Amino acid sequence: xxxxxxxxxxxxxxxxxxxxxxxxxxxxxxxxxxxxxxxxxxxxxxxxxxxxxxxxxxxxxxxxxxxxxxxxxxxxxxxxxxxxxxxxxxxxxxxxxxxxxxxxxxxxxxxxxxxxxxxxxxxxxxxxxxxxxxxxxxxxxxxxxxxxxxxxxxxxxxxxxxxxxxxxxxxxxxxxxxxxxxxxxxxxxxxxxxxxxxxxxxxxxxxxxxxxxxxxxxxxxxxxxxxxxxxxxxxxxxxxxxxxxxxxxxxxxxxxxxxx
Length: 260
Hints:
The protein is mainly beta. The protein has helices spanning about 1-10, 210-220, and strands at about 25-35, 40-50, 55-60, 75-85, 85-100, 100-110, 115-120, 130, 150, 160-165, 170-185, 190-205, 205, 220-230, 235-245, 245-260.
């Protein structure tokens, strides 16, 4: 359950709202995660943007029936800057606890490349079926949270890109392809949206033959719906679906409001 929850925690942050161009702006938002339509987690995030810099912090915990079987809680944060159309993080950290067990991952970046990774507890010894990371894999990458902040000229330009992501162990690519346009309304926001289909490709930092990754790569249907928030040129997802071997996970923004 902890591995699934960590994935959900990362998925939750895809609904980070975008800043306005002028001055300091802060936001607060709530999100829900359902599995086969059943609530399993909820989250709250606070984000601050000033000119080309950003900072996002969030907490998440099990919800609904999941609370009967799991007491996992987690937090995640990221900070960095925008360089043209690119998102360049400087720091990323995720912590979660499950009962008496805890785990932490911290990543530092400079100029779009990873400079330091810390995992507590450290990873176990890898076998011969492990695909190792190289320095080349850690160049021009972003973390899972910063990756969700997309700069584009219009809704039509949001998809049609590949995002290179490193989560502290796994290095993977997400390729976004235009699927449809539409509209959405949530508490505090409404407007036009674009939905991208998503292809997942593991690159390094994983075990060959792992069924969950093979399913995500070859069979899973994944979508992300993006929305423009303000006139910033930054787009953030307001909905995401991920097909797994045992059912579909859905992440949905429920509330968004400016606090400054």
